[in-house]
Specification:
Shape: globular
Number of helices: 18
Largest sheet: none
Structural class: mainly alpha
Distance between the termini: 31 Å
Length: 450
């Protein structure tokens, strides 16, 4: 059992503040478009003075894609050396500004403001997705680090559920309010983050200020007995001094390849398709909008439940087992969905097809939350030291978001050509990822790693 004595009110305050700023708006703006895109398409038809639904749908796809595209750009800046907490704080101001731009798009009847608002929200989310978990890993009690990483994902899942619920009840009449309401928790988190200190590792290793690092540790631990923690930081500093400057030639290894596979699996497992297009999938089977939106909300709740299961079992089952369970379930789910869609395409729309589709959508959320959603942060944190983590994140996370943007943009267009045989690549990817991770999971020991 994890030692509760390692936790204190100050660390919990920092944890909640960072999650509000770095995780909440990320999850909110991933989940919000699944239900809100139909009212937005109707508004786009009015604004652009066109009766073409295809034109409005294309613009809606672009608006949807702007968020992962912005994430891709934002993640490139995660290798900055200005302190993780400081960057997360200042980037939260960009989040608030982008929300203001979104709020003004309907008043000024400008779809470009909607596009730009989504893009810059993505930029801030990309930075936070890479740096906020690193900051939490640095300041968390050692025994609680894995739990903290899952807790960060828990906030993302919670925000997705909230966005889907708000979209279900309010999108048809007040979709703009649904889009911008996330500014409230972000503003609260930004204000709270102002009172949080920088990472003691950053202050000691990068700023060479031992006294300030000790003061920060005293603040975090709420005790003067910090010798053990200072020894840990000094050992990491010795490792950093012995290293050359981080670049691809210095850190290329099987561990980097493994981290790349885990990070990419988060998108190639099919998560973007289910998160953005579950309502479209259900409507193609024959469900009406209300039912498809209800099932989408159910998927969000299942994802939240899966993350809670991971939270309470991460130290018992370990990340490898959770990730294998997650990928194995997603392999079976996408296989069942493909079979169901095959029968649906052949106009053999039996009751089991509808039931299998609903079950696949909901259970995919559960499977995703159990492992794939959060393990990508853990493998980077556990396989690389303080100096190298930002470089690895700046290398791998843009690829993750780039794949997400490509899948979001291409999925509906590809279904016109190949229909739901498009799930076959996800089936293959889930199987390949399962086999690779089972045999290639590295033995991690950060103190001896490059």
């Amino acid at each position: 059992m994890l030692p509760l004595t390692d936790l204190n009110k100050r660390f919990v305050f920092v944890l909640i503040s960072v999650c509000l700023v770095g995780a909440f708006h990320h999850g909110f703006h991933i989940g919000v478009f699944n239900i809100c895109h139909k009212p937005i398409e109707k508004w786009l038809i009015q604004v652009r003075e066109t009766k073409s639904e295809k034109d409005a749908q294309l613009t809606s796809w672009i608006v949807m894609t702007m968020f992962p595209a912005g994430c891709c750009l934002g993640a490139l800046f995660s290798n900055c050396r200005f302190g993780h907490k400081k960057i997360v704080f200042y980037i939260s101001l960009l989040t608030i500004g982008s929300q203001v731009v979104l709020n003004m798009c309907r008043e000024f009847k400008s779809y470009m403001m909607l596009v730009m608002g989504r893009f810059f929200l993505g930029v801030s989310a990309g930075v936070c997705a890479a740096l906020a978990p690193m900051y939490l890993w640095d300041v968390a009690p050692e025994a609680w680090r894995r739990v903290v990483m899952v807790f960060f994902q828990l906030f993302i899942s919670l925000a997705m559920v909230i966005s889907q619920l708000l979209g279900f009840f309010m999108a048809s009449t007040n979709w703009i309010i649904v889009l911008v309401i996330a500014v409230v928790p972000v503003a609260i988190g930004t204000l709270a983050l102002k009172f949080c200190p920088e990472s003691p590792r950053y202050v000691f290793i990068m700023r060479k200020n031992e006294m300030k690092a000790m003061m920060i540790l005293v603040w975090f631990k709420n005790t003067l007995d910090i010798s053990k923690h200072m020894d840990e930081i000094r050992n990491e500093e010795d490792l950093v001094k012995a290293m050359p400057e981080a670049d691809l030639s210095n850190i290329w290894s099987k561990k980097l390849l493994f981290c790349f596979v885990v990070v990419v699996s988060e998108q190639l497992c099919g998560s973007s398709v289910f998160i953005y297009y579950s309502s479209e999938i259900l409507q193609d089977v024959g469900f009406d909008e209300n039912v498809s939106y209800s099932v989408t909300v159910g998927m969000g709740w299942a994802m939240l439940c899966g993350t809670v299961l991971a939270l309470v079992s991460i130290e018992t089952l370990k990340p490898k087992i959770l990730l294998l369970i997650s990928l194995g379930l997603m392999f079976l789910i996408t296989l069942v969905l493909t079979i169901a869609m095959f029968f649906n395409l052949n106009h053999d729309n039996k009751e089991w097809v509808s039931g299998a589709t609903v079950a696949s959508v909901v259970l995919f959320g559960l499977a995703y939350g159990i492992g794939v959603a959060h393990v990508r942060w853990l493998v980077i944190a556990e396989n690389f030291n303080f100096l190298v983590r930002p470089f690895v994140a700046a290398l791998l996370f843009p690829v993750n978001f780039l794949i997400s943007a490509a899948v979001v943009q291409m999925f509906l267009a590809m279904t016109v050509v190949v229909r739901y045989y498009i799930f076959i690549p996800f089936i293959v990817c889930n199987f390949v990822f399962f086999v690779y991770i089972y045999f290639c999971w590295p033995k991690t020991h950060v103190a001896t790693l490059p």
